[in-house]
Amino acid sequence: MRHQIVASFLVGIRLGRGSGIAVAVILAVLLGPLVQQVLGSDAEDVKIAVSLARLLQAGRSVISSNQALINDPDRGDKGLTGDVVLAATIERYRKLTGVDPASIDPASREGRLLQAEMASIKEVMDENQALINEKGSGFKGFIPATFARLVTERLQQKIGDVAEIKVTAPPNLVRNRKSRPDDWEKSIIESKFLAPGWPRGQLFWQLATSKGREAFRVMVPEYYSASCLSCHGPKKGDMDITGYPKEGASEGDLGGVISITLFRTSG
User: Fold this and answer.
1) Helices (H) then strands (E): counts for the chain
2) At residue 14, does pLDDT exceed 80?
3) Does 4 map to a domain?
4) Which end of the chain is more exposed for a tag (fewer CB within 10 A), N or C?
């Protein structure tokens, strides 16, 4: 099995955890006229995987930027309905990629997966309106990491036989057991992303087995910035706003990985 090294550029996105805390991370993305030459036969799979990751990150950034509103105890209806958040997510995705995800052919594999992800975003927001709009309650725990997990779990219900997406991390940084890396993800995190010589932000992909099936698997690393450290930085062991002990991380440390699995169809 092999992995490909790709040209990339850096895009600032947000991963939030805690009240009003935006966490800027770096994603290596695949664009440009030479992408087909660089990736060869893997180009379409990598493009789809990155597109799914981008949409999740766009939604996560919308939740991050609205943490102060979500946690406002004096306001009831926050106006963050599924339709509102999805529209904001699409706009952020469009600004990053220059593409409206709704414009991608819904009959294509990428279009079907993006439609399912957009539906998942809307459903998760609509189902959490009572929590988000609870008046008299401050910090509600509806942070970007929770949003992302709920969206990926709902997406799993919709298209789990075709693809999966998960936000994971090095095992010592995982706060929710549902986000633990599987053996393959753990091996890539340890042998690639945590290796001293691994280029910052570089993707890894490989044809590998997942749940007993052949799959094309893509890993997108994300890194702590200064704004992450209020929850994840020093002093190690101190409790952050979510009630978890801080990890004692430093700016630039690997903070998480978006793992995308595209199952191969037989025949």
Assistant:
1) 9, 6
2) no
3) no
4) C
**Strand order across the beta sheet in which 213-223 lies:** 163-168, 254-263, 213-223, 204-210
Classify 22 as helix, strand or coil: coil
| Residue indicated by tokens 């779990």 | 153
Q: Is residue 2 part of a domain?
A: no
Could you report the per-residue pLDDT of 64-84, keeping only the tens digit for each? 899 999 999 999 999 999 999
- CA dist., res. 92 & res. 115, Å (int): 16
Residue 161's domain spans which residues? 9-263
Shortest CA distance to 36 belongs to which of 77, 4, 2, 75?
Answer: 4
Number of structural domains the chain divides into: 1
- Assess if residue 104 is contained within a domain: yes
Write out pLDDT tens, residues 163-211. 999 999 999 999 999 999 999 999 999 999 999 999 999 999 999 999 9
How many angstroms separate the CA atoms of 110 and 52, rounded?
8
Nearest to residue 218, comparing CAs of 12, 95, 49, 32?
49
The C-alpha atoms of residue 71 and residue 111 are separated, in whole angstroms, by: 34
